[in-house]
Amino acid sequence: MQEQTNEKISLFIDDELDSQKALLVLKKIRDDEELQGVLQRYQLISQVLKNDESGLLNNSFAEKIHAQISREPSYLLPRKKTEINWQKTGLAIAASIVLAVVWIVNKIDNRANTSYRPPEIAFIAPQPLQAGAMNPRFNDYLQAHENEVYINNVERGQPVNARLVGFQQE
Amino acid sequence: MLVRFLVVFVLSFSVVAAEDKPGDALQWLEKMNAAMKMLNYQGTVIFMKNGQLDTMKYRHSFVNGVEQERLFSLNTPLREVMRKSNEVSCLFRETKQKVINHHPIDSSFIINLPQNSENLDKLYSITLHGNESVAMLPTQIIDIRPKDQYRYARKVWIESNHYLPLKVEVYNDDGSILEQVLFTDLQIDGNSELNAGVVDENSLHVTHIHTTQAEPFEQAPFMLKNWPPGFNTVFFIRNSLQQSQKAVDHLLISDGFSSVSVYLEPKQDQGLQGPNSLGSVNSFSRVIEKFQITVLGEVPAKTVEFIASGVALR
């Protein structure tokens, strides 16, 4: 009941109550000191929001406001209906359809390739080396790595071949 | 009619179930490991790696407890590669140069296999994968799939009577073939020696590449904080690389199928940074203080980066 009255007071201040309801609210406020306090607070908040004015306050003001607000219930006030912009709505629907089509096509494509899914690995992809452009140090390391790759000749454009099959004349 | 259908159904189901036993697949690998070392055999092998194709005559022999492998290239540049246990030599016939490398370990030219298959099922899912003919010989296909992202998947076609590998494929993360080794013909117990012509040993220019004695890894100036599961130390040596002749610390780790080298040396100029790849071989380099760190191996790029990020100076 109290919540409904507070809600009507808020609507009254915002000039969103019809005349009959406004009169009823005013009568209630006249007979109830607590509602008068609510009206004053709502009016103050409304003025501050509308005028964007501020002044120096004592240190306890914020605490008092905070305590008061915490005691107040939350209101889900109805919002004034705005006119529907059919042009924007149409564009939004079209964009949603395009996104949905892309998502579905992607899903179907993924299902078509489910025979083997490589594991996801997060790292920087290595650059495949061109035989002629191989760092000589890399070549040395390859040669020393096991028998299979211990000698090769990448400097003459011959790729290093594991297990000595790329062994080339110097 | 119904009974016959049920019998056929049960038999076919039991065959499928038997094929899925990982123990059977491991036994095939163990038998192949033994056959590869103990038998005498020869044939023609095609190596397809890094977009390059090489055809070579191959001969394996086991004499007085010493394993020997010989490869003769059929195409230019003509060369003869021989492995006698852990000593690998390469003779360039046209320039009469010979390089002899004394490597700390011996490994096959065809395929590397773990010496101990005990914990292999923790790292790989190893299953029988049907039968095919390779080089007119019946084979059993073994599917070797890693259980994590630190190693490559493989398939091995093992000859059904003698358990020799006739075909090996290594796969990338996306399922594409990275490497292939394939026998086009195979003779068991062939006595004829491979010989591409006699070369006067005195006319050769011989280069020896010696490696130092392996040391305990605990004596290395660096340590690894990131070990991919199943990888163990194979050796640690302090060596000089062929071209630069500068001292390099070299650690080799392996899970049996794949191996990774970790190199540490004083930094030169700007040093190497970041990832590189060549076929199935990936590397990742970084600089720590005054040192150059490079991790390189036949493993996915993710693995070398993971190991490299965990290298720290002692």
E-strand count of chain A: 1
The best one-word shape of chain B is globular
Q: Say which CATH homologous superfamily of the largest domain in chain B is assigned.
A: Lipoprotein localisation LolA/LolB/LppX
CATH topology heading of the largest domain in chain B: outer membrane lipoprotein receptor (LolB), chain A
Pair of chains with the largest interface and how many residues each contributes:
A-B, 41 and 66 residues
DSSP helical segment count of chain A: 6
What's the rounded overall pLDDT mean of chain A?
64
**How many individual helices of chain B?**
4
Report the sheet with the most strands of chain A, covering strand number, pairing sense and barrel closure.
none
The main sheet of chain B orders its strands as: 7-8-9-10-11-1-2-3-4-5-6-12
Helix content of chain A: 40-55%
Low-confidence stretches of chain B: 1-19
Q: Which bin fits the share of residues in helices of chain B?
A: 10-25%
**Which word captures the global form of chain A?**
elongated
Instruction: Indicate the structural class of chain A.
Output: mainly alpha
Q: Measured on Cα atoms, how large is the radius of gyration of chain B?
A: 22 Å
CATH C-level of the largest domain in chain B: Mainly Beta
Quaternary structure = heterodimer
Keywords, separated by commas or semicolons:
heterodimer, A: 170 residues, mainly alpha, B: 314 residues, outer membrane lipoprotein receptor (LolB), chain A, Phosphorylase Kinase, domain 1, 12-stranded mixed β-sheet, 20 strands, globular
Protein architecture, described:
The complex is a heterodimer of chains A (170) and B (314). Chain A has 170 residues and is mainly alpha-helical. Among the domains of chain A are: 2-53 and 60-71; 131-164, no CATH class. Chain A contains six helices and one strand, in the order αααααβα. In chain A, helix 1 (2-13) crosses helix 2 (19-31), helix 1 runs parallel beside helix 3 and helix 2 packs across helix 3 (33-51). Chain A starts with a helix and ends in a 26-residue tail after the last helix. Residues 111-124 and 149-170 of chain A have low confidence and may be disordered. Chain B folds into two domains: 12-188, Lipoprotein localisation LolA/LolB/LppX (outer membrane lipoprotein receptor (LolB), chain A, Clam), CATH 2.50.20; 212-313, MucB/RseB, C-terminal domain (Phosphorylase Kinase, domain 1, 2-Layer Sandwich), CATH 3.30.200.100. Helices cover 15% and strands 48% of the residues of chain B. Chain B contains four helices and 20 strands. The radius of gyration of chain B is 22 Å and the shape is globular. Chains A and B meet through strand 1 and helix 6 of A and strand 2, strand 4, strand 5, strand 6 and strand 15 of B.
